[in-house]
Amino acid sequence: MSLRLYALALSLFIGGVVASASSSTCESVKSQPEAWVASRVDALVGAAHAAYEDDEALPAYQRVLGEITGTIRRCELTRDEGFASRYRELVEYVEAAALDQYPDHELGFTVPDRQYFAETRGLVQIPDFLTTRSFLRAVSRKGTLARAKSYLRQLNKKREPSEQLVFFSYKSRHLGTPDSDESYGRLLVVVPGNAEQGVPEKWVQFGMPDARRARVRNVSVVSTIARPDGTSSVYFKDYFRTYRRDGSISIKGRWELGYGDDNCVQCHKSGILPIFPVAGSVSPDELQAVEEVNRRFRGYGSPRFDKYLDETKLGPGLGSATVADRKGRFGEDFVKSPVGRAMICNSCHQSEDLGALNWPMDQVVISSFVKGGKMPRGLTLDDSQRGELYEKLIQEYFAADNAHPGILKSWLLGRFR
Known about the structure:
With about 425 residues, the protein is α+β, with helices and mostly antiparallel strands.
């Protein structure tokens, strides 16, 4: 046999083995769907929990997710009406959660990143008056920040009351910029919109260097526009500044520059995030501006991500367990304790309000808001109680034991219907 014929025969043999194995797997799944779903849900929830706690576990989670979506696709389980109906939550969840694993879907949306940015260009574009050479130079160094604010105040003198820019500088409690994990300084400029004219409200945030770092590149835009049903559509884009030797500064999309992007909704469950600065990082004369932007946030309505993601497919979030389930897991005494009574995330964070805090979600953001005393609002707990509250919320959400399955596992198995 010639070498070419031998290679062809070997290829056909391997292909036949793979096809046979795939066929055998599909037959097993279809004959015992309950056993397959139970084992895969356990694996998925366990891997998700590990990835939430440690970014280094993310590849293992992605492999589990890929295996599940691959089996559903190869075995055409979505065409099996019985399976698709019985395990609707699992099928829809893995489809939505796996979006950012596809090529050119780093944003985690149903369309490629290129298409998303092309279709939303006008909604997330930085206003021209925030890209002038003098302003970009002033906002790129801590020592010239006052000059940047002076420029914004001069702009406001020429704008109508309804068009006034709201701005302040602050230090973030929990997140560095996409180009620097150690840069927590920000200048936020909120540019009012007009829903009747189809103009979104834009939160334009410039990363600011601290004393140890000369330059930060990131500028982010999160836009929101009210919808007739009382919800709001939210759009995202990150930009990077490029500093040139001649002193000029250009600004272009992070994705267009080839730096990739992040899954937007992982951090922005509520669309736009409220601002809770590090204590003392906002000057006294700008504290009213912080109150104003958070007032606007509360008035935006439930976040929606337009045609690019159906956030309901990711299921319920933290704090959505029933009282009976919580008693079974932690005991009746705990449910009556101050920490137990504080497990009320779902009173605001659900689909019809501020958006559910569900997986995939960012551990730094969730931990900071709960342990930092900002959530849940209106409750007084000491540091120890807040630490316990956080641990109990995470345990309740990711628990995978059969006796007391957590929120994620229970929902994936269809027990929230």
